[in-house]
Amino acid sequence: MRILITGAAGFIGFSLARQLLARGDSVIGIDSVNDYYQVSLKQDRLAALREMGGNRFAFHQQDFARMAELTKVLEGQEFDRIVHLGAQAGVRYSIENPHAYVEANLVGHLNMLELARHREVEHMVYASSSSVYGGNTKLPFSVSDRVDHPLSLYAATKKADELMSETYAHLFRLPLTGLRFFTVYGPWGRPDMMLWIFTRKILAGEPIPVFNNGDMYRDFTYIDDIIAGVIACLDNPPPDDGAEKAGGSVKPHRLYNIGNHKSEHLMKVVGILEEECGRKAEIDFQPMQPGDVRQTYADIEAISRDLGYAPTTSIEVGVPNFVRWYREYHGI
């Protein structure tokens, strides 16, 4: 297949592209390569993809929120399916810079829907987020739950993306699958995420900020498990058969949680990091951050039933894998 991936220089986009190239697909990558976090890491990911993919990997540094430029850069290039992972990420940053989220996550998502519609692609898989569950107290979070009370603008934009997608599935019968990711981690991860921050600070002997005084739980999902789920979705477009699908749509539109189906205590992860880093963490306990949630926990019954998704990597395996990669990448 020929697959267009937005956010190809990002953590999940890079990891997906690498796996698709390994199985023989061709990949067109789109990414603005912005400076939300260190550009050098994004460039290193792209270099690895170019080396691996050869002429089966093409890359365009392009902001997909700019429709005219996006259309021009993709002129004459063919692709069968799209995985739209590009977005302005981060719950806390959305409080500081809301306009960046409207531009990337709303305008950008609409542009990708329009591109998919006019190119008549076979399927578009897109990134939603577990943050859409907001203040829900029922656990685990299920795709059948109502998600009308987001706690951050980031979460609100992701819910809006799901609604726009439902409209396009209805009006244009465009096959779409939205994926609600739960705390993705692993080698080549993001420097703004907890695992990277804690590893860097523990190794440097600096205090780590632990919010809600440590009373936090997350459904940590290893990157290899995430990519297995994304590819299973990509390879199985939702049928336009009028039957109700995961998430409740009767259009060719599905919503899935992709998580590990385990809600792990944050301090347990800190303990594993201490062991792998070879030193105790100095902990700076802080109150809950605005827009954050105490616990995430994915109900993955729908994607397991439909596509056989079955995550296999525990934090006891995944966290040490990340620390080993981090040390090797930084030469420490």
Low-pLDDT regions:
none
CA distance, first residue to last residue:
39 Å
The percent range for strand residues is 15-25%
Order of strands, main sheet, comes to 3-2-1-4-5-6-11
Oligomer description: single chain
User: What's the Cα radius of gyration?
Assistant: 19 Å
Number of helices in the DSSP assignment: 11
Going by CATH, the homologous superfamily would be: NAD(P)-binding Rossmann-like Domain
Mass-distribution shape: globular
Can you summarize the main beta sheet? Answer: 7 strands, parallel
Please bin the fraction of helical residues. Answer: 40-55%
Secondary structural class: alpha/beta
CATH topology category name: Rossmann fold
**What is the domain total for the residues?**
1
Please identify the top-level CATH class. Answer: Alpha Beta
**How do the helices and strands follow one another from N- to C-terminus?**
EHEHEHEHHEHEEHEEEHEEHEHH
Q: Quote the average pLDDT.
A: 95
Q: Would you count the extended β strands for me?
A: 13
